[in-house]
Automatic annotation (TrEMBL):
Residues 20-255 form the Fatty acid desaturase domain. The chain crosses the membrane at residues 6-33, 156-174. This is Fatty acid desaturase. Keywords: Membrane, Transmembrane, Transmembrane helix. One of its GO terms (biological process) is lipid metabolic process. It holds the Pfam family FA_desaturase. It comes from the Bacteria. InterPro entries: FA_desaturase_dom (IPR005804). The lineage of its organism: Bacteria, Pseudomonadati, Pseudomonadota, Alphaproteobacteria, Sphingomonadales.
């Protein structure tokens, strides 16, 4: 899955390097933004120990080949994400703020997606991340540098390596255009849509329905739901089932007559309409 993810990213960049025009650039931004979400999904898989049998190999893959590239850290993510599983949709759920504000209005949903696609959301998030990593201004410079290294040093190394590879190949401009721009725009929008589909507008009192599965076709998988992330109800039911087995797990539940107990919807359009149904 990791090789596939980076292979798709490389192919999209190669397409623009070979045939640069507005259509190929927009296509590549959408493809790469969805794969940046894919890297986050695979980091999430690593947080559950699903990338390798060896814990050390699993963590290395999750950190260096997935999380650091999108300025995320598996260990920090794991710490609160397991709390999310423990308290899903309850008051102690650390992710509750992502779903509690829904349903909202169509106008509010439209504004959110416009902010995502224009880079406003991504810019604010990265600015806050950078400020936090720099520590407090009154701290000594060496202390602030140590804190920055602990927070963002490894993501800087990975992104510097990615930029260096592109620059060595003679296409340094692909990094800002086809890595930074998708990370600040399309990746933000599809992450929001995924978050809404997974947990928004759910009956929190039913333990079988603390998460939602969304049926998708191949096109939606390519641009919105990579690596079986749409099988989220099954993931919450048995969180250590690897993501590449969730589709099979869904079929097992169907044969047992249990799928109807889960929250399953027919597409992301349906969940977005539910989440924006407030007058």
């Amino acid at each position: 899955m990791i090789v596939h993810c980076w292979g798709v990213i490389a192919a999209a960049m190669a397409l623009v390097a070979w045939l640069p025009n507005p259509l190929t650039i927009l296509f590549a931004i959408a493809v790469i933004g969805s794969r940046q979400l894919g890297l986050s999904i695979l980091m999430h898989e690593g947080a559950h120990g699903g990338l390798a049998v060896s814990p050390r190999v699993n963590m290395w893959l999750s950190q260096w080949l997935c999380g650091y590239s999108v300025a995320a850290d598996t260990l920090a993510y794991r710490a609160y994400h397991l709390e999310h599983h423990k308290y899903a949709q309850a008051e102690n759920d650390p992710d509750l703020h992502l779903s509690a504000k829904f349903p909202t209005t169509r106008a509010s949903m439209r504004r959110k997606l416009i902010r995502d696609l224009t880079g406003q959301t991504g810019f604010k998030q990265r600015r806050s991340q950078l400020r936090a990593a720099l520590g407090k201004p009154m701290q000594p410079v060496p202390a602030r540098l140590r804190y920055f290294w602990q927070a963002l040093g490894r993501p800087v190394i990975v992104n510097t390596a990615l930029f260096s590879i592109l620059a060595f190949a003679g296409y340094w401009w692909l990094y800002p255009l086809l890595w930074v721009v998708p990370l600040l725009t399309w990746q933000q929008a599809v992450t929001r849509i995924r978050n809404i589909a997974e947990h928004a507008v759910l009956p929190s009192s039913d333990p079988w329905r603390v998460a939602r599965t969304t049926r998708v076709d191949w096109f939606t998988r390519a641009f919105l739901a990579p690596y079986w992330v749409n099988y989220h109800a099954e993931h919450h039911l048995l969180l250590y089932v690897p993501c590449y087995r969730l589709k099979r797990f869904h079929a097992v539940l169907a044969r047992a007559g249990l799928v109807n107990r889960l929250e399953v919807r027919g597409g992301y359009g349906e969940t977005l309409r539910m989440a924006s149904a407030r007058a």
